[in-house]
Structures are given as structure tokens and as C-alpha cells.
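The protein record passed on below.

***
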Amino acid sequence: MWGLDGTVCVTRRGNDDVVALGDDDGDGRADVQRIFAFKLPGVHGVAVQDAELVPASSTTIWRTPLALPLARPRVIVSGLQDGGQHPNRTVRVGPDQMLWVSVGSSCNDCAEENLLERGTVIRYSADGSRREIVANGLRDTIGYDWHPVSGALWGMDHGADFHGDDVPPEELNEIVSGANYGWPVCYGQRAVDPMTNAPPERLALRPGQAKPDFKAIPRQAYCAQTAPSVLTLPAHSAPMAMRFYAAPANAGAAFPAPYCSDAFVALRGSWNRSVPVGYKVDRVRFGADLRPLVSETFLDGFLSSDGSSFFGRPTGLAIAADGALLVSGNSNGVIYRVAWLGR
């Protein structure tokens, strides 16, 4: 989901299309809806660059002009690793004007067959002709964004399932080029995961290496070489999107100044936990040193008080042209608009 000049572009993976939503009368509700791009199998992520829409599926990235008449989207990247357990792809335009895409793992806690491609963040040139694997050891960092002041890249990574209610935690990581974040051998503060079946010697690989190093490595020694998380959230909260708040200039619905440079995280909610968590949007507060301090509930109410049912699962986030926060879900077909009323 992406806001641009009052128009919001929303991907519908089940329909293989992108829908453009407009608000002509300015009341905060979409009164114009039209299909902008179609026949894009499994489309999920979407970005905007140079007056073009950039949709992405698990294997493909396209480009198409943001203009009428509609043109057939052209493929600029093909051959990304297919879905497996994590078929969704988030594509973003970085401060370097390159296209960044997260590629989740194919499994829960296995040693991937393709160590160079799975559990990574990859970036491509705008035309898709050049690529670089930025970081690995990330199970599924589908939500990520750049701090508007420091420029640092932060991402929320999903922990493994079937390890119990409280481990491993969901991780907020600072994504640094060349770093390995430990999945599936380690989690959190370099803790060794005793339940994984993946031997670390199958994973001794960092971005830029031509091939894995198959020397036997003790788990603790391997984990000591990985990048630790900076902040954690409860296990199985399922972070699906992350956006720093930076309101457009002269935005009437912009949030108060303390929100600027903080991040919002959409937590879809757990399925692999006896007591549900998530089903909300958190605000991650950043300090004067531009580092995260704490994650706290910003928007909830999607889960019943007894935890037995839900009517929404926050999944997508965007900052609208007027500064409001847009929140989409994958269970009820609704996009919520959260605006500051100045009270």
C-alpha cells in the first residue's frame, strides 16, 4: 500500500491486481476506485519511483507508468526465489534510489538449500540490471524502512514457529550491509536456538561470499559472529509492515511533532500461540540518539477481550498525502485512516 498525491495504490494478491483509490471530495474516504494494473500473478509489494508504479510478487518485479492509458507492466526482475513458507515480497525505493526487496525463508528453521537467496534483503538498480545481497540470516523481514534523520535501515524479523509461546521473539534489527542476523541457529541477543535442526556449518555464509564455508562451527561460536537484535516484541506477534512517520509538507492531518521519526509496526497477530498477541499497530519510540527505546501499543481493538476471535489483522501501512496513517488488513478488506484532530 502506498500513498501518492492523494491516490492510494493497493495490491490484491488474490486478484493479481493493483487498485487505485482516490478521495476527490477530501473527506478521508475513498470515493474513486479503479484497477490500475492487472494480470500480475501473486502481486504483493508495491512502490513508486520516477512516476512509475513498481509492483512485486514472490518471483518478479515489474514497472509501469503512473499514467493513462494503462500500459502492460514490463518485467525488470525475474527469478527471485519462489514462495515457500514466505511468499510475500516487500519492495521499497531506498535513499540510494535502488529497489530493495526482502526475500523470506522457504521454511521454519531449516538450512536453506539456496543460502545466497533465501532469508535475505537484496537491492537492485532501478532498472533491475544490477543486484547486491545486503544481509542474510533473516527469516522474514517483510517490514522495513529508513530512519528519516539518520538514514539507517531498520527491519522487523519474524521468529520461528513451534518453539513455544514465548520464544523466539520478533526482532527489530538495524540492517547493516554484510551482516548475518543468525536465523535459524540464533535469535535475539545471539541466543542459541536449541530446537533448530539446521547445523551452523551449513550457514557460515555472509553476503559477498562466493560459496558457503563448510567448516564445522560450534553453535555458540557461530552465534557470537552474528548481529544481535536491538529491540524485541512478543513471540508470534507477526510484524508485517514498518513505516517511520515523516509527514508531507503542509499536511493538515499530520501527527504532533513527538511522533516524527518514530516508527509504526503492523502486527498481524499470532496463530501459533495459546494466548494470542498482536492484532494491533505499535509505535516504536526512538530516542535523541536516533536509536529505538520501546515499542508500545498505538492502535488496537481488533482482538476480542477474551482473545477468542478477531475482526481485523493489521498488515499494511502508509502515510497518506495529508499526513494521516493508513492501515490495511488481510482479513476484512478494510483500510483504516488514523488522523490527528488537533485536540
About this structure: The chain has a mean pLDDT of 90. The helical segments are 219-224.
